[in-house]
Structures are given as structure tokens and as C-alpha cells.
Amino acid sequence: MTDPVTVHVPLGERAYDVRIGAGLLARAGAQIAPLLARPRVAVVTDANVAALHLRPLQDALRAEGIDSEALVLPAGEGTKNWDQLSACVEWLLEQQVERRDVVVALGGGVIGDLVGFAAAILRRGVRFVQVPTTLLAQVDSSVGGKTGINSAKGKNLIGAFHQPSLVLADINVLDTLSERDFLAGYGEVAKYGLLGDAAFFGWLEDNAPLLRHDAGLRQHAVAHSVAMKAGIVTRDETEQGERALLNLGHTFGHALEAATGYSDRLLHGEGVAIGCALAFELSARMGLCPQEAPSRVMAHLRQMGMAARLSEIPGELPDDQELIRLMGQDKKVIDGRLRFVLAHDVGDAFVSDAVDRAVLAEVLREAR
Ligand SMILES: NC(=O)c1ccc[n+]([C@@H]2O[C@H](COP(=O)([O-])OP(=O)(O)OC[C@H]3O[C@@H](n4cnc5c(N)ncnc54)[C@H](O)[C@@H]3O)[C@@H](O)[C@H]2O)c1
Ligand SMILES: O=C(O)C(=O)C[C@@H](O)[C@H](O)[C@H](O)COP(=O)(O)O
Ligand SMILES: [Zn+2]
After folding, report:
1. Which coarse location class describes where this protein primarily resides (predicted)?
2. Is 294 in the pocket of ligand 1 (CB under 6 A)?
3. Which of 85, 95, 249, 252 could form an S-S bond across to 272 if both were Cys, CB 3.0 to 4.6 Å?
4. pLDDT at position 1, please?
5. Domains contained in the chain, number
């Protein structure tokens, strides 16, 4: 078995470690204990994860003398809303979670984002630990401190930057993920190669089909992704510049998630993968990158058995103008101008506000 890897996120007084390895859940008590002022934590999770991984976590905490109470929320993107946020915050208050206490988010990106936001606003800020249980959460959402919930008007529009105090990514818990959720998370892994690391994308082309069943390759993919994200977040914690590159595919993806009602029709990572394909197509159409680049992105998504076109999203989609209107809520917008993450090639993304709406509409139309 491969030894755990630690990626440090050096953010001064908000610095923390991301630990990645097999069997970390069973050692969670020992890992979390040094953070505690008193031996108790509040755990928040979702129903699917609770059935599979809550007991082992609570046993591991108990083994180190740490008491825990757990709140189980409904699973799925629909949970990232005001009602569930309120339920979570009220429960944490009921548990008398104090300023010096620690909240544990056990689950995928939905739980991590919602619980992180609850921790950010509870008593004006308590610490939290991320225990990510999806591939997406391990490579992306548990790191970097973006927390929040959705609005019908757009994705993640209500939130705060609030860094976790520790991230424990046990790669073994990914064994229980559905194929669909694993592949959706893979959308964010591929994104890292596409936005800034052509060699990593090449490695993924050779190895990604084996990730699901090879723990060593999986650990490498998670650790490499986390290291890339940690580097970007360290240089630009609050997205004043470079961090926007992590949004590759998201201007499209978030509009599509809003258009499909944050439902099972389109998972976040699926929207990101389709969005990456569209961002590369748009870049090629604008003469910014060679046509081989979007073809290569498309071929890789196909190789992984992933959807790459709008026409593969089940059900009706709004027309192109409505999708573009939804993009207007994107957080990268400045002075009402859309800003897109485009690419000069695989591994070479940049941010641009010079996208012609007619070309954008044409790319959307042709992707249907
Ligand atoms: N904060 C960030 O930087 C950031 C980054 C990327 C994505 N996100 C957000 O993350 C969310 C998507 O996260 P996600 O894809 O993890 O979705 P998710 O949290 O809904 O998890 C996907 C599904 O897998 C189940 N599940 C979780 N762990 C499991 C396990 N080990 N075994 C079996 N089932 C398990 C969940 O119950 C759920 O049904 C979106 O809301 C997205 O906006 C945030
Ligand atoms: O961490 C970031 O920065 C990202 O953009 C990572 C994305 O994968 C993630 O989906 C994030 O939540 C999107 O951020 P948003 O600001 O566009 O909501
Ligand atoms: Zn994302």
C-alpha cells in the first residue's frame, strides 16, 4: 500500500494540511484530536454517506476519546439551499457548538460547501474539517475554502471564503461511489490538466481508465490535482486573478446546472466536462487554439465514457439566448461583461472578456 501524501496549503494563519491516502478514515480521531479544545465534534453528512461511512468515522473518533453527534441531510445538489443551510446552522446551535469547537463535513462537494458555509457564519466563524468522500470533493471542493449554496438565479451565489483547518481524503471511501459520481468527479480531474498541465493531461490519457480500480494511480491523480489547486489558491486565495482558471468549463457548466434545476439531469462534474469541451471549441472557433485541441478534449471524454455535448443532457434545454442570460450571473462577470476561461492549447488556459456573443451562440447551437 502507498503511504499517505500530505499537501500543505500555506495560507499564513489559515494554513492547513490536506492528507491523502488509503485508510485515513480509521485514523480520523488521531488526526483531528490535535485541533480540539475539548473532546467533542459535530459531524454533518448526507443520507447516502451516513449509511456507508458515518459509523467508521464515529468509531475512529471514539477510539481517541472524542464524542460526536451527527446530523444527516438529504443527498444531492438540491440540498445546497437556504432551508438545509438553516437546518444545519440551527442544529449546530442546538448542539451548542462553540467558537473553539470543530465541525466535521463528511461527504461530497454538496456537504462540504454547505457545511463550510454554515461554519463560516456560525457565531461569525468556527473551524471545520473536510472529510471528502467523492472523487470531486477530494480533488477540488474540499480544498481552497470556497463555501456556499445555490440560488435559483445561479450556482453558488450565496457563500463565503472559509478555509478548512484540515482535509482528510481517504481514497478507499471512493470504492463505494457509483460509476456516474466517479466519472462526474473525473470531470474536475481532467480540468486540471486542461487548464495548466499538459503533461498531467497526457498522463490521464494513458491512465485515467484505470483510476477507478487502481489505488496507486488514484492516489497520484488526487494528490497531483490537490497540489495544483493548493498552488493556485496560495497565490490567489480570493480569486482576484489566477484562481479564475479553476473555473474552466464552469461558465457553461453552471448555466446548464441552473437550467436543469440542480437536479440529477446534470451533475456538477458532468456540466464541467461538457463546459470544458465547449470552452475549447469556443477557443478554436475564435482562432485562439488549434482545432486539434477541442478534438483531443472530446476524444478523451469519449474514451472515459463521459458526455461531451449539450445534446447528451437528457430533456429540453432553454434556447441559446437564455443560456447566455444565465451565464450573466457568473461571479467572474465584471461591469456586466462575461469573462470566460479559454485556452491556447491543452494545459494553457487564460481568462478573456473578448468573446463575441454571436460566436458563443453559434458554438452553443452546434453543440446541441
Ligand atoms: N467549493 C469548491 O471549490 C467546489 C469545487 C468543485 C465542486 N464544488 C461543488 O461540489 C458539488 C458536487 O460535489 P459532488 O460531486 O461530490 O456531489 P455530492 O456531494 O452530491 O455527492 C455525489 C453523490 O455521491 C454520494 N456519495 C458521496 N460519497 C460517497 C461514497 N463514498 N460512496 C457512495 N456514495 C457517496 C452522495 O450522497 C451523492 O449522492 C457541487 O455543488 C459543486 O458546486 C465545489
Ligand atoms: O476553487 C475554485 O476556485 C473553483 O473554481 C473550483 C470549481 O471547481 C468549483 O466548482 C467552484 O465552486 C466554482 O466556483 P464559483 O466561484 O464559480 O462558484
Ligand atoms: Zn467545479
Report:
1. cytoplasm
2. no
3. 249
4. 61
5. 2
